[in-house]
Amino acid sequence: MPYAAQVPVLRTLHVFGAIFLLGGVSTHALLRPMAARATDAAQQALFQFAWRVELALVYTGSALVLITGVLLWIVGHFKVFTGWLLLGFLLYAAAAGLDGAFLAPNLRRARTTAGEGSQPVAAAAMTVQLVAWLLLVVVVFLMVAQPF
Ligand code: HEM
């Protein structure tokens, strides 16, 4: 593919990845407080849906932004030490860490067993979920504004 065509294609895929990822994480942030207040059967159904969202949107979007982001970094001839890129990558890694270490296992457990377990765990998951969402919102700002 000629060079001139690569960047728009990669950028489109990258933005699709961002839409999937942030869409999925936003859905989780809306679902968790609903699930916490739902009856057992409804809770089970909501967490099953949340797990679907994790697989179809969060994991897919996360892989897509990572692969296309690194390719854009190289193909777009950005310097290695570009401030917004390094910080954006770092915040993405932090959000992925929170998801992999806590949020995804929490959803996976809640989908099969009765709910999330204790009320404090549900409250912690809600807070961590909002932090992950906020990190990704900051990444979008950094990528769009490219401020430094
Ligand atoms: C995983 C590490 C990431 C890397 C290495 C990366 C890299 C890049 C690069 C190099 C660009 C500039 C493309 C250009 O101007 O030609 C870009 C744009 C963009 N990135 Fe990322 N990105 C990453 C993660 C993310 C994440 C997590 C999101 C959002 C959830 C995101 C959202 C965007 C958006 C919306 C743009 C478009 C900016 C515009 O064209 O105005 N990126 N990214």
What's the tally of helices? 4
Shape: elongated
Number of strands: 0
Report the span from N to C terminus. 31 Å
Computed structural class:
mainly alpha
Q: Spell out the helices and strands N to C.
A: HHHH
Number of domains: 1
Q: Assess the beta-strand content as a share of residues.
A: under 5%
Runs in which pLDDT lies below 50 for 5 or more consecutive residues are none
Structure ligands: protoporphyrin IX containing FE
Major sheet: size, sense and barrel closure? none
Helix fraction bin: over 70%
Kindly state the mean pLDDT as a whole number? 93
Rg to the nearest angstrom?
17 Å
Feature tags:
148 residues, 86% helix, 0% strand, binds protoporphyrin IX containing FE
How is the topology of this model organized?
Layout: H1 3-37, H2 40-75, H3 83-112, H4 119-145
Helix pairs in contact: 1-2, 1-4, 2-3, 3-4
Residues 7, 11, 14-15, 18, 21-22, 65-66, 69-70, 72-73, 76, 78, 85, 88-89, 92, 136, 139-140, 143-144 line the site of protoporphyrin IX containing FE.
